[in-house]
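Exercise 7.
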Amino acid sequence: MRSVTGRGCARGLAVGALLGLAAYDLSFTASTGRSAWPAVLVLGIGLAAVLWSVARRPRWLTPQLRTAAPAVLSLLYSAGAILAGHSELFGPGEIVILLTLTFIAVRHCPQPWAAVCGVLDGLALLALPARYFHSVTDDNLLLVTTIGLVLVGATAGFAGYLRSLDYRRTVAVTETRRAERLAIAADLHDFVAHHVTGILVQTQVARMMATSRPADLDPVLSGIERAATEALASMRRTVGVLRDAGPDAADRRPAGDLAAVAELVDGFASPVQKVVLRRDPALPDDLPHEVQAAAFRVVQEALTNVRRHAADAAEVTVGLRRAGRRLEVTVTDDGRGGTQLPAAAHGGGFGLVGLTERVTALGGELRAGPRAGGGWEVRAVFPAGRP
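Solution. The predicted structure, written as tokens, is:
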């Protein structure tokens, strides 16, 4: 509240000072006995361009029109005085207005209008001395023009610097939002692909059991129902984050931890596949969140790949253990690569690529390959702090 009040007071003082300078220009012009209407027109249009409230500004009053129209009027005023051969006064009000419009043009006008309007405002300011001094060799003209050139250069340079900061900020915000949405999309793929693949496998199991073991169908159907419910819940959470991409969207992004690995393993088990979780009792629960989330992703992707590529595996083992300052995650199976999934359900083959990027970004290592005794193993090692 104090900062808002302070900004309001500063703006009021600036507006009052600008109006006071413009009134000084008009009073000084009137005191010379010359016609004041050109100065009234130039100063009036300039003040309207600078002070018109953003909330009440019509759409047609673009930054280009705001900054170019007063500059053109000022140039016409100066050109008329030069051609008429008589001196016309200029004051600090018009100078401040043109400098302000130069700042607005360089910072806020779209390209290439920023350069065009900035040059127009700068030329209008530099032409002010010629309105009064008609001799190009006049020392006063050269001095005042030099001062004006310095003021225009400093104002345009400062506005250009702020414009570059605005651009960098916009790019950073855009890239951050893009990266966040890509991460959310990756999470949606991970969760839904895992659950949908499970639904497909368990549906195939149910079809096989329908004729041979119909009494054992209930657990399989319950697993299908649970996987479908979790897939829908994951989609709702993720789409909710995408719709409400606020500053805390990353905190609400679906993510797993070591505690969720046990639920993942329980949900993966089926009547034809045994899944065992071997967790080191010495493994703490307060590991860094990003490490736990990455470990969860490794287990999730490895289990999904078992369903896709090793549906004949009878036993799958998930291991979590602390080795000094490192967390070791392993997923092994005894499958021979046989699968009955349709080709369209095998995926694009980029799951392990994304996992490798996620693991190496945390300073870890990921390896996947065949086991010596048959089957497949996925092994990830993460730095996990002090033992």
